[in-house]
Amino acid sequence: MPGHLIRRLQQISISVFSDRMRALGHDLTAPQFATLAVLARAPGIDQATLAGMIAHDRPTIGGVVERLEAKGLVTRHQNEKDRRAKVLALTDEGAALFQHLLPYVRDIQPDILPGLTESERTEFIRLAAKVAEAGNASARAPLVSKPAHDAT
């Protein structure tokens, strides 16, 4: 069944990512890396916007951001325009870590889809993206491509 296979692929992906991070001497999860990646290209967004941009629910993102803040990789400051919201940014250490890890994360992508040729991986990714886009509205935490508004 597709659902079981998708769950197994998620397990493989997380295992490959976690093992590689540990081998590099880093305690960083895939959602934490995704957070660093989004903040590298969209500094100053709030947690709700971040959650949408990596398709995680708000409580999960809250924990991810707390752990990154505790590691000194992310800062949270009160939004000047909306005092209820916190704006997020990478620290210098967070930006440097992201840039350092990015080539390694790119290099492990084939390991996440073992047994496929390069053309098969390309086709698999194309089809998986098509399914994810078509089912986005059904997700508990839909992906939001771009921030709805300027959070700063």
Automatic annotation (TrEMBL):
Residues 2-133 form the HTH marR-type domain. The keyword Transcription applies. Coiled coil: none annotated. Pfam families: MarR_2. GO terms for biological process: response to stress. One of its GO terms (molecular function) is DNA-binding transcription factor activity. SUPFAM superfamilies: Winged helix' DNA-binding domain. InterPro entries: HTH_MarR-typ (IPR000835), MarR/SlyA-like (IPR039422), Tscrpt_reg_MarR-type_CS (IPR023187), WH-like_DNA-bd_sf (IPR036388), WH_DNA-bd_sf (IPR036390). Keywords: DNA-binding, Transcription, Transcription regulation. The keyword DNA-binding applies. This is MarR family transcriptional regulator.
